Amino acid sequence: MHNLPLITPFAAPTHDSYRREGIDRKGTWICWGTENRDVAIRLIKDGHWEFRLVDFTANFHLLFAVMLSSGLDGIRDKLPLTWRDLRYFSTEMTGEELRAMGVTERLASNFRDSLEPLRRSEEMGGLLGERMKGRFLAVKDQDEEALSRMHEEDRRLQYIKYF
Questions:
Q1: How many angstroms separate the CA atoms of 112 and 145, rounded?
Q2: Which of 98, 99, 116 is nearest to 108 (CA)?
Q3: Which of 37, 62, 87 is nearest to 140 (CA)?
Q4: What pLDDT does 25 receive?
């Protein structure tokens, strides 16, 4: 959970990855919850978890490597789980109620902003290697520059062509 902002650009790696809205969106807060479709990490039942940030444009090999490395770092460093089980939609809760659940930090709401924690992170450079991190950021910066200037329909057709 501590590295969720660093994992996000690998899970939702394109401009339109951030367009999900409504009840079934991917989550806007760093938190988890049982049977809650409004969170980034959803517990469905014991032993069955859903990582809701990921979309079809993710490179699953790279994403899995980043998630596994981050999880192992959390275990090694004995990081506590400070977030409580969020069973209600965050939109139905007050700021005070969210803080009481340990929910205090939002995830990026667009791709450009999602890259910033990764750009600043020395830790992710250690996980991926600085060279891989730099290349990922360079490619994603070019993608974002090109895709953000396109009209929605042109972007959709581009995605169909690629994926």
A1: 9
A2: 116
A3: 62
A4: 62
Bridge-based pairing state of the strands 41-45 and 48-51: antiparallel
121 burial class (0-12, 13-18, 19+ CB within 10 angstroms)?
middle
Exposed/middle/buried for 154, CB within 10 Å: 0-12, 13-18, 19+? exposed
Mean pLDDT within 120-145? 88
* Length in residues, the chain: 163
State how far the Cα of 143 lies from the Cα of 149, in Å rounded to an integer.
10
43 burial via Cβ count (<10 Å: 0-12, 13-18, 19+): middle
The pair of three-digit structure tokens given for residue 43, joined into one six-digit string: 């517990």
Query: pLDDT tens-digit profile of 57-83?
Result: 899 999 999 999 888 888 999 998 889
Q: How far apart are CA 37 and CA 58, in angstroms?
A: 20
CA distance 76 to 73: 5
Looking at residue 89, its pLDDT comes to: 87
